[in-house]
Amino acid sequence: MDQIALNHEASAGDTHKQLVSSLPQDVVQCLENARFLHLATCIDNQPHVSLMNYTYIPSSKYSSAPVIVMTTNPSSKKTNNLLVNPNVSLLVHDWVSHRPPTQGRRMSGGSPGPEHRSSLASLLLNLNTSAISSISATINGTAQLVASGSEEEAFYRSQHLENNTFDSEGGVGMFNGGSGEHAPEDGGRECFVVGEEVRVILVHIKDIRTSDWKGGVKDWVLVSEGGVNGVR
Predict the structure, then answer these.
(1) Which residue, of 50, 57, 113, 179, has the fewest CB within 10 Å?
(2) 199-212 and 135-145: which strand pairing?
(3) Closest to 66 measured CA to CA, from 116, 98, 24, 35
(4) What number of other Cβ atoms are within 10 A of residue 75's Cβ?
(5) Is there a contact between 18 and 219 (Cβ–Cβ < 8 Å)?
(6) What angle do CA 195, 201, 205 make, to 5 degrees?
(7) What is the C-alpha to C-alpha distance for residues 129 and 227, in angstroms, rounded to an integer?
(8) What's the CA gap between 100 and 32, in Å, rounded?
(9) How far is the C-alpha of 95 from the C-alpha of 91, rounded, in Å?
């Protein structure tokens, strides 16, 4: 069978970069469908990646441009990193990432074979064939900690809480504080969203790179009235 040629032309640079005043629709769809994202921070050439709950807000009275909201423990490594270097990168996709079983069973206890798999598990394993989104998005931007006790913080916190409140089976919250423990029955809201010490992170989007399953890459720079996301 002939192999499908990969498209790597745009990966080497940004010659296909487009200036846009709003996020492309497939990026919006990806942000609205996915439940988690990967947050990359870096100081002293030492990168750090965290798996995070998040909330995408297209616009508000505090920002006419789209922003991404997260919450964090104030003493976490990611918090310390972004205080020194606010430049961050986010990776988001809504593909089902569970690895299907291989021919040889893994000794470490990998995916169960078909004979032990429930109908729901089989459905989830096959969702990649009809993925909701056909792209992943790498989003670069600057992060800020919203002022503690401010109306702005209260607004973004409430939006984030509403967006990440599920039933008891949802298990929300285990990726915000970095404790690695099971979330309580309220989804971890008291610990990871509305806890007194929890800080609200706001990411202002600068540019986006999308990649499809063939390796095709597209680049966008978000431009507002004042320039690139408000920066002339």
Answers:
(1) 113
(2) antiparallel
(3) 24
(4) 11
(5) yes
(6) 155
(7) 40
(8) 25
(9) 12
Owner of token pair 């505090």: 62
Specify whether the CB–CB gap between 209 and 137 falls below 8 A. yes
Q: Which tokens in the block code for residue 177?
A: 């504080």
Q: What average pLDDT values come out for the chain (232 residues) when binned by 10 residues?
A: 53 74 93 94 97 96 96 94 97 73 56 57 55 80 96 96 70 47 43 75 96 87 68 40
| Residue 100, both tokens | 């299907």
- Residue reference for tokens 């809480």: 161
> What is the bridge-based pairing of β-strands 55-57 and 67-72?
antiparallel
- The conformation of residue 56, written as its DSSP 8-state character, comes to E
Q: What radius of gyration, in Å, describes the C-alpha atoms of the chain?
A: 19
Sign of the four-CA dihedral 175, 176, 181, 182? negative
- List phi, psi (to 5°) of 38: -100, 125
Q: What CA–CA distances, in Å, run from 60 to 33, 63, 132, 229? A: 20, 5, 27, 15
Q: Is 197 exposed, middle or buried (0-12, 13-18, 19+ CB in 10 A)?
A: exposed
Q: Give pLDDT tens digits for 144-170.
A: 999 999 999 999 999 999 998 765 444
- Residue 79's contacts (CB-CB under 8 Å, 6 or more residues apart) are 72, 73, 145, 199, 201
* Nearest one of 4, 60, 15, 66 to 203, comparing CA atoms: 66
Residue 210 tokens read as 């999308």
Q: What's the predicted TM-score (pTM) here?
A: 0.74
Largest CA distance in the chain: 61
> How are the residues of the chain apportioned to helix, strand and coil, as percentages rounded to the nearest 5?
25, 30, 45
